[in-house]
Design a protein that fits this description.
alpha/beta, 336 residues, binds 1,4-dihydronicotinamide adenine dinucleotide, Rossmann fold, Isopropylmalate Dehydrogenase, binds magnesium ion, 12 strands, 40% helix
Length: 336
């Protein structure tokens, strides 16, 4: 049997890191049929569409995708295909586990924090217009439906995984209606899960609290923008963006991608760290029910970090992206 998976290599470091991750996933011995598609500016050259229909049809069929980052132009140009993809498939739950790897120097050892970000609305609705020259308006959409749905997902996850505490993060002192609705929904849902502690923190204070003592948090539940910002902040606890995986879950499909972007500053040099996208691949294996294969990849990555012989530049090593992958693959065959 083989798994059909849509592969979106992306651009920038995307093809380099997804290429490495694909090789590692194949080294588990599982069979994959990758349906690979370009997206964003690269796709436009070929299909005159940023998110081509064949890609969407593929995800519709396979229901699971592994995705590299796609560059979004700043201050103009096409709207983020990452956001479009999440909206198109109603991938409403963005899940980002923040956990240390062995021997990665950090001021924050032993972090085990789950970020759950609402992925379909908020300011990422992208509804903006110029009212008059010099005045623009950007609408923050918060709905009871989406806020309840993401809260339910977070509490269900907490219950299933035995997590202890959820903090809903907001700015309802200022955005009384929008963030007010978001926390009202999470508060309502929390009442159905009495075994899970629930609290509400204001987002700016949360950033200070996180940097001071991340251990006071177990799971963070955030609307879209705060979730985006706080994810990168929390990535720094465990060694940076090269390490932190993510998943976008809907009721029908799931797209697995790292927290990081296309890293144009290091793209094309073969030095990007493929750990984050490979760990996203581990989340994908678990989603497919392949826990044994997931554990093998995880243990091999942990061994590579423990030894510190084949790490990429961001981790203080000299290995290239593909040398890192080779080392993980060799470790998996040693451990077999
Ligand atoms: P970024 O995450 O691409 O890079 C931030 C910093 O982290 C850079 O110094 C980069 O070199 C480093 N970094 C990121 N991933 C790394 C890796 N795997 N190994 C080693 N170092 C790594 O964020 P930035 O520069 O703000 O965004 C670049 C582009 O990526 C933008 O066009 C943005 O829109 C897009 N982006 C796409 C995402 C996606 O496809 N899901 C997510 C975030 C950003
Ligand atoms: Mg981000």
């Amino acid at each position: 049997m083989s798994y059909k998976v849509t592969l979106i290599p992306g651009d920038g470091i995307g093809p380099e890191v997804t290429g490495a991750a694909v090789r590692i996933l194949e080294a588990t011995g599982l069979k994959f049929e990758w349906e690979s598609f370009e997206a964003g500016a690269d796709a436009y050259e070929k299909y005159h569409e940023y998110l081509p229909k064949p890609l969407l049809d593929s995800v519709e069929r396979t229901r699971v995708a592994l995705k590299g980052p796609v560059t979004t132009p700043i201050g103009g140009g096409f709207s983020s295909i990452n956001v479009q993809l999440r909206k198109h498939f109603e991938l409403f739950a963005n899940f980002r586990p923040i956990r240390n790897l062995p021997n990665v120097p950090t001021h924050y050892p032993g972090v085990d924090l789950i970020i759950v970000r609402e992925n379909t609305e908020g300011l990422y609705s992208g509804i903006e217009h110029e009212v008059v020259p010099g005045v623009v308006e950007s609408l923050k959409i918060i709905t009871e439906k989406a806020s309840t749905r993401i809260s339910r997902w977070a509490f269900d996850y907490a219950r299933k995984m035995g997590r202890k505490k959820i903090h809903a993060i907001h700015k309802a002192n200022i955005m009384k209606l929008s963030d007010g609705l978001f926390i009202r929904c999470s508060r309502n849902i929390s009442k159905e899960y009495p075994e899970i502690a629930y609290a509400e923190h204001i987002v700016d204070n949360t950033c200070m609290q996180l940097v001071t003592n991340p251990y006071q948090y177990d799971m963070l539940l955030l609307e879209n923008l705060y979730g985006d910002i706080v994810s990168d902040l929390c990535a720094a606890f465990v060694g940076g963006l090269g390490l932190v995986p993510g998943a976008n879950f809907g009721h029908e499909c799931a797209v697995f991608e790292a927290v990081h972007g296309s890293a144009p500053d290091i793209a094309g040099k073969g030095i990007a760290n493929p750990t984050a996208v490979t760990r996203s691949g581990i989340l994908m294996l678990r989603h497919l029910g392949e826990n044994e294969a997931a554990d093998r990849v995880k243990h091999a990555i942990h061994a590579i970090y423990t030894e510190r012989l084949h790490l990429t530049k961001d981790m203080g090593g000299t290995a290239s992206t593909s040398e890192f992958a080779d080392a993980v693959i060799a470790k998996m065959s040693e451990q077999a």
